[in-house]
Amino acid sequence: MIISAAPLAWTGHMLTFHALLTTYGINPAEVRLVRHGNKEIPVLDVFQNNPDRLSHYTAWQKLGRYRDSRYIAVFAPARGITALFLGLWAVDGVTVNKDLAPDHLSLLRQYELPEEWYERSAFYHLNLSDVMSDLSERLVIDWGGSTVSWVQRGDKPVVLIKGTNSIGDFVSYDQVQLSYPDLQKLIQDTDSNITWVNALTAVNGIYLIRHTIDGKLYVGSAYGKEGIFGRWKTYSRSGHGGNKFLKDITPQHMEFS
Questions:
Q1: How far apart are CA 142 and CA 184, in angstroms?
Q2: Predicted pLDDT of residue 200
Q3: 3-class DSSP state for residue 95?
Q4: Hey, which end of the chain has fewer CB within 10 Å, N or C?
């Protein structure tokens, strides 16, 4: 099933995440919703570049955290109290601490996760499902305030379903924070991101590129006729925009603001 951008209505009521699950043949009672924070890993960046690492990051939890859930719906933080849907992971069992195999410790090392999890956490066997994959990085829900737990069973209202290549509407210059994959979507499908094209074409000036792995910063400037949009277009094409200092950096780990 393909869901396209559409008015957010559902049989006369606001569209909710549980309603979407039902549409895809998933029982909402069998799903836990997980909204990871960015404190330990950059969630969206990891999902886009190393989804297996996000799977393992989600898999190591206190025994009973996911209870009898058949699926885990994983979200990344978005603006304010909203959350961006990444995908559904099927739960195929759990290994408790006393039964952890030595190879599980090597997996923690492989995915650069804390080794102490081996002793204190159970390992949930998670597999990324194709169900709802067409909504990955497109569906935005209202998660709730800061006091709301990062693991939930309750329903959530849908705030937005972006177009296939849409990165959402431009809001303001001080909220620009684009991942490299989003920059590529913007450049490759300008019709779906016209508010961004108009805003970034209208201004010249200073911009910042952050390397999300080590936090290093690069400050650049744009003065061409297409403004910042024109300059960022060169980064989308080459990954480094002709700058020698960026040629050794993997562009997928760049963030533009």
A1: 26
A2: 93
A3: strand
A4: N
Q: For the chain, how are helix, strand and coil distributed in percent, rounded to 5?
A: 35, 25, 40
Q: Which regions of the chain are under pLDDT 50? A: 1-12
Q: Are 14 and 157 in contact (CB under 8 A)?
A: yes
Distance between CA atoms of residues 220 and 205, nearest Å? 8
Q: So what's the pLDDT on residue 13?
A: 60
> b/e string for 60-78 if b means 16 or more Cβ within 10 A?
bbeeebbeebebbbbbbbb
The whole-angstrom separation of Cα 212 and Cα 218 is: 12
Record the tokens describing residue 186, joined without a space.
Answer: 């913007």
231, 220 contact by CB (below 8 A)? yes
Q: How far apart are CA 153 and CA 162, in angstroms?
A: 24
CA–CA gap between residue 95 and residue 109 (Å, rounded): 18
How many other C-beta atoms lie within 10 A of the C-beta of residue 246? 19
Number of Cβ atoms within 10 Å of the Cβ of 128: 20
Q: Are 153 and 32 in contact (CB under 8 A)?
A: yes
Distance CA(138)–CA(218), nearest Å, equals: 29
pLDDT digits (tens, 9 = 90+) for 76-93: 998 889 999 999 999 999
Contact 179, 228 (CB under 8 A): no
- State pTM to two decimals: 0.73
Concatenated DSSP letters of 158-222:
EEEE--TT-------GGG--EEHHHHHHHHH-GGGGHHHHHHHHS--EEEEEEETTT--EEEEEE
Q: Cα–Cα–Cα angle for 231, 240, 41, nearest 5°?
A: 105
Whole-number Å distance between alpha carbons of 134 and 187 = 21
